[in-house]
Amino acid sequence: MEHAPHLPVGFIACDPRAVARRLISAEHELLDRTVRRLHRLPALEFLAGHFEPHRMYSGPGSEFLPTGEEMNGRIGTALAAARSELCTSQPAPPEKRDPTVRKLGRQRGRKALSQGLTHRALYNSAALADEDTASYVARLLEAGGEARVTAARVPRMVIIDSTHLFIDNVLSEEHSEPDAGWHVTDRAVVAWARSVYDMFWWQATRWQDLDPAAGEVTSTDLQRRILRELEASYSQAQAGHRLTPPLSERAVHKVLAELREALGMKSMYQVMVWWGRTPERELP
């Protein structure tokens, strides 16, 4: 119906076909505008990459966990949902670690392997001499895990799936328990920590290459102590005086001569080149 122009008040019937054509034309125009708007949306989304990138790539940041119980509980929760890997580093010698925390760490390692995760464990070189740790690592390797040893001062950390990072409380140790720490989920920070972990990992030596039970060790503890002094640029005479108990220069020379003969080398230059490359350098 439409208003009749020749009547003061009233309506007349319209041709249904004409009305239908007008309505169809209007809908076509509306659809055309909608399609044009949809076509422009990808360009708008592209601009998002230039708008505060940290909003797109960062997580909620970090959370302080003031007790060891909360810290270990959170690690357990993250591990239960893990899909790919568990990476751990333990710089402290075994005798300085809390037995309860050590037990929890080993339980996590076994759990990770039972879930089908990749598990890498990085230890302080002092762990080689600890029978309890050696026994655990032997089972870890047998189950498909990996372990390496380093003398470097690697920070203690737990990384799960490259999305969860757990570190010690380095901000204020006065107001927290010894095993308190931070749960970090910021993707950039976790990625950086993972790169640091990988750097220490690839510079470390495989546990099985240093384990005396896995093969014969050429050098003795005394020989390694002397070699470390020589490596630090001390002469043989100076190295002998720095040992406990001290040795004379003649005694040092004799100890090194025995090592040189065991290696089948003719000079100390060759011995020092061997020392710079051998995994035995990581032995305590």
Number of H- or I-type helical stretches: 11
Write the element-wise H/E pattern from the N-terminal end onward. EEHHEHEHEHEEEEHEHHHHH
SS content category: alpha+beta
Overall geometry comes to elongated
Cross-sheet strand order for the largest sheet: 3-9-8-7-4-5-6-10
> How would you name the oligomeric state of the polypeptide chains in this document?
single chain
Largest sheet: 8 strands, mixed
Approximately what portion of the residues adopt beta-strand conformation?
5-15%
The total of beta strands comes to 10
**Helix coverage percent:** 40-55%
| Integer average pLDDT | 85
Radius of gyration: 34 Å
Low-pLDDT runs of 5+ residues are 54-58
In whole angstroms, how far apart are the ends? 100 Å
